[in-house]
């Protein structure tokens, strides 16, 4: 489990360390269900994201690696604040600790 996952070429340049998770926020809703366009300033901050890369996990007191709870491709719920912005190939991604992710969507 010591290897990090890198699904795309861009992420071979950047792999999260320890229990860090790299996510890409999902696009904001630009139209209501009724078909009304939402101005950019009125759009809510998107708290849903897709996991694009994960670190191997954190090391506990016994020296054993505790794996990350999410995997590449999972859709997750993020906290409203936090995370570190990372720009790769002119796209914005965010780096969170595994423990900061609030939940995972299941289908």
TrEMBL record:
HAMAP family: CH10 (MF_00580). Homoheptamer arranged in a ring structure. 2 heptameric Hsp10 rings interact with a Hsp60 tetradecamer in the structure of a back-to-back double heptameric ring to form the symmetrical football complex. The keyword Nucleotidyltransferase does not apply. Co-chaperonin implicated in mitochondrial protein import and macromolecular assembly. Together with Hsp60, facilitates the correct folding of imported proteins. May also prevent misfolding and promote the refolding and proper assembly of unfolded polypeptides generated under stress conditions in the mitochondrial matrix. The functional units of these chaperonins consist of heptameric rings of the large subunit Hsp60, which function as a back-to-back double ring. It comes from Cyprinus carpio (Common carp). Belongs to the GroES chaperonin family. It comes from the Eukaryota. One of its GO terms (molecular function) is protein folding chaperone. GO terms for cellular component: mitochondrial matrix. The keyword Chaperone applies. This is 10 kDa heat shock protein, mitochondrial. SMART domains: Cpn10 (SM00883). PANTHER family: 10 KDA HEAT SHOCK PROTEIN (PTHR10772), 10 KDA HEAT SHOCK PROTEIN, MITOCHONDRIAL (PTHR10772:SF0). Keywords: Chaperone. Pfam families: Cpn10. InterPro entries: Chaperonin_GroES (IPR020818), Chaperonin_GroES_sf (IPR037124), GroES-like_sf (IPR011032).
